[in-house]
Design a protein that fits this description.
By secondary structure, the protein is mainly α. The chain has helices spanning 11-20, 22-43, 45-50, 52-81.
């Protein structure tokens, strides 16, 4: 997979994986929820300041999920090439 690939570039594979793989669907949904929560907290300066460590933990979890998502996408692409 190219480093510049995005979720949008892989939307067909993501849609398929979400339908056939419940673990993938769960991690994809968790990633989206974390993204929304992080964005909300970062926009609220008062909450952001008081919850910096929690936000950093969420960012690390989100990054881990993103890596797992891209691994699943890459594996599906390799299976399709065979």
């Amino acid at each position: 997979m190219r480093k510049t690939d995005t979720f949008q570039d892989n939307r067909e594979i993501i849609s398929e994986l979400k339908q056939i793989d419940s673990h993938f669907a769960n991690i994809f949904d968790e990633h989206a929820q974390l993204d929304q929560k992080i964005n909300y907290l970062e926009k609220d300066r008062v909450k952001h300041t008081s919850r910096e460590e929690e936000i950093e933990q969420m960012k690390r979890r989100k990054l881990h999920l993103k890596d797992e998502i891209y691994q699943a996408i890459d594996q599906k692409k390799r299976q399709s090439d065979v």
